[in-house]
Design goal:
The complex is a heterodimer of chains A (about 220) and B (about 270).
Chain A lengths: L2 H17 L5 H22 L4 H20 L9 H12 L1 H19 L4 H21 L7 H20 L9 H10 L1 H33 L1
Chain B lengths: L10 H17 L3 H17 L7 H14 L6 E4 L5 E3 H27 L2 H9 L3 H27 L5 H29 L17 H20 L4 E2 L5 E2 L3 H31 L1
Antiparallel strand pairs in B: 1-2, 3-4
Helix pairs in contact in B: 1-4, 1-8, 2-4, 2-9, 3-4, 5-6, 6-7, 8-9
The chains are: A mainly alpha (about 220), B mainly alpha (about 270).
Chain lengths: ~220, ~270
């Protein structure tokens, strides 16, 4: 295990212990989520990645960001999660996480950074990671139905569930519950739009990426 | 009107400033601190000439938040549901919504001042591969927009849905094929060789070092002294200390103070000619 990761593993309980008295759960959870993302980035930097793979990752992120900005007038309809899932399946779990986090981060250069950025990064990253892991273990298949079901469930529960945690800022359990209840229709809309996007583009896009992989190795 | 001279400082100074100001805005819920921070954020927004108001949403939050919060001692009135509406929860709700508005305002300033190339400059040495990916993506997005229009011109059709599917398909294939070309071309031009430089070149001057030390010392003092405690629920209770308030004010107003100082210096030098 690289040294920085050990330090992070030590920092996690330390921060929680030091700050738990202050009752500022928002700050604690924000710090913990940043600690959780750092090891992925560090591992990625340690690995000497092939230049072609690096450029492919950049292309997938650019497609995801361009897709989100193409539908900018319809805030809940965005193909970002769909593209992240496809790249998680085709390029592996680690690249999936990277593509998820970075596309959330970069698209907020256009849509505006805010306290929600970190939650979005973690949520999309985990979806990409999960897609890669489940595909590797043959739980997720390269079929339309399997991918669509996975996309719908993860968008609603993981993306919605994590991003709504931003309401922790109010530090009040009743407001947070109200926030979750109010956002159910929005999350449902987001999940169904992800399903539609996956239904339309998943198989053709996977075929295209596979073609590139066999053509250039 | 005064220009924002703070934006010309080294990115590390800007980054330290925004990290500390935003963390303190979330952490210090003391009413005076909230007022200091929000006034500084709004003046800074004015200095940067940003007109972006998202106050409507936060007004709603400030109304909803106390309605759902029942803990508190001083009962103002009872809601129709039978829950008591307390002074403490009202104050707490107001404080929370102030805090959220402040953080949003600080992020508006951050978006204007810390541009993506400054961020890349900061993290380019630390995380070179991630920075490379980010800078490539920032280039690819406008390129894809141009390509998208080119494809649209080449494929006029009555059926919008069919065109869209075709255009997306062409886009994806085109971008992936050229990506491999880009990678090979980068390799041929010596990607990965040592001693690469970044696009923007900032120099750490004495004033940058002085200001960043000042920011770190002020933040450190505020963290260590820890005198500005406040509880809203169940009883509104707070402590205060004048030096801490003054230091927090200076910390939040740093860009404005520096811009005014620079402006005065400029005026003074002009008057001497």
């Amino acid at each position: 295990m690289p040294k920085p990761i050990k330090i992070i593993l030590l920092l996690m309980p330390l921060t929680t212990l030091l700050l738990v008295d202050s009752n500022n759960y928002y700050f604690i959870s924000l710090l913990l989520i940043i600690y959780a993302m750092l090891p992925f980035f560090i591992i990625y930097e340690k690995r000497k990645v092939q230049l072609r793979e690096l450029v492919m990752i950049a292309v997938m992120i650019a497609i995801a960001v361009a897709g989100r900005s193409a539908f900018f007038m319809l805030p809940q309809i965005k193909p970002m999660v769909a593209i992240v899932i496809i790249s998680g399946i085709c390029l592996g779990a680690q690249s999936g996480f990277l593509i998820g986090t970075l596309s959330a981060f970069i698209s907020n250069f256009i849509f505006g950074q805010g306290p929600w950025t970190i939650w979005q990064m973690f949520a999309t990253g985990s979806i990409g990671f999960l897609a890669g892991i489940l595909y590797y273990n043959n739980i997720l298949m390269k079929t339309k139905t399997s991918i669509c079901i996975f996309g719908g469930i993860t968008t609603f529960f993981i993306y919605g569930g994590i991003v709504n945690l931003n309401s922790l800022m109010t530090n009040n359990i009743a407001t947070i519950i109200a926030y979750y209840v109010y956002s159910i229709p929005f999350d449902l809309l987001h999940a169904s739009s992800t399903i539609v996007f996956l239904y339309l583009i998943a198989i053709p896009m996977i075929e295209k990426i596979e073609r590139i992989k066999t053509k250039y190795g | 009107m005064i220009r924002c001279y703070f934006s010309d400082y080294h990115p590390i100074v800007l980054f330290i400033y925004f990290i500390s100001v935003i963390s303190f805005a979330i952490f210090l819920m003391h009413p005076v601190c909230l007022l200091i921070s929000i006034s500084a954020a709004i003046s800074y927004l004015a200095l940067l000439r940003i007109k972006k108001y998202m106050l409507a949403i936060f007004l709603i939050i400030s109304i909803i938040n106390p309605l759902f919060n029942h803990a508190g001692v001083t009962i103002l009135f009872y809601l129709p549901t039978g829950n008591p509406f307390t002074l403490e929860s009202l104050l707490y709700g107001i404080a929370t919504s102030f805090m959220i508005i402040t953080v949003i305002a600080w992020f508006c300033c951050y978006n204007k001042v810390v541009t993506s190339d400054k961020l890349l400059y900061l993290f380019g040495k630390l995380l070179p591969q991630l920075s490379l990916i980010i800078s490539m993506v920032l280039r690819l997005i406008p390129l894809y927009k141009i390509r998208f229009n080119k494809i649209m011109h080449a494929n006029p059709s009555d059926n919008a849905f069919k065109t869209a599917a075709l255009v997306v398909s062409i886009m994806v294939t085109w971008s992936m094929e050229t990506a491999i070309d880009t990678a090979d071309s980068m390799k041929a031009r010596g990607y990965g060789l040592p001693n690469r430089t970044t696009f923007s070149n900032y120099k750490l001057t004495t004033r940058d070092i002085v200001v960043s030390i000042g920011l770190v010392v002020m933040s450190g003092y505020l963290i260590c002294s820890n005198k500005l405690a406040v509880t809203y629920i169940p009883i509104f209770n707070y402590t205060q200390s004048l030096p801490d308030f003054i230091i927090y004010t200076i910390l939040c107003y740093t860009p404005i103070i520096l811009s005014i100082m620079e402006e005065l210096k400029w005026k003074y030098l002009i008057s001497k000619i």
